[in-house]
Design a protein that fits this description.
There is one protein chain. This protein is mainly beta. The protein is built from one helix and twelve strands; from the N terminus they run ββββββββββββα. The chain has a twelve-stranded antiparallel barrel with strand order 1-2-3-4-5-6-7-8-9-10-11-12. Strand 9 and strand 10 form a beta hairpin.
Length: 137
């Protein structure tokens, strides 16, 4: 069964029900509250220019390495799992999150701060990381 997550103007919804929010802080970090999960995404201080993912309870969870132009981004979790976030379509408005060539989540976003994710499993970290990877502000 497919699930649908939407985001708009700082709020996150599943099937129309508010389940979280996100906020870009003055530091450039993005804080996300989703159900019972609190996450922080911050620009890496390393030269690779990625985005580091943190949870106040568990520490560093992984990193998003953004691709350039039409090349895929990578989501690399501290447990060793690695995912590809591939842009599709004009202006990179559609993205596919893949593991081993299997599509796990399909994202679409508008040029404004709105978008959706269609998925068949519930891995909140992966879905939220994908949102950040495609440029949620």
């Amino acid at each position: 069964m497919n699930h649908k997550l939407n985001w708009a103007n700082g709020s996150i919804y599943i099937n129309g029900e508010g389940v979280g929010n996100y906020k870009k802080e003055s530091s450039g970090n993005l804080s996300v509250q989703f159900k019972e999960i609190e996450l922080l995404f911050r620009n890496s201080t390393n030269s690779d220019g990625g985005i580091e993912m943190f949870c106040p309870k568990n520490g560093k969870l992984g990193k998003i390495k953004r691709g350039r132009f039409k090349s895929p981004s990578k989501i690399i979790l501290t447990d060793g799992r690695e995912y590809s976030l591939e842009p599709k379509g004009v202006f990179s408005k559609k993205w596919k999150l893949k593991a081993n060539d299997n599509t796990l989540v399909v994202f679409s976003k508008s040029l404004t701060d709105k978008g959706e994710a269609i998925y068949i499993f519930e891995d909140e970290l992966l879905i939220l990381s994908g949102m950040v990877g495609i440029g949620v502000q």
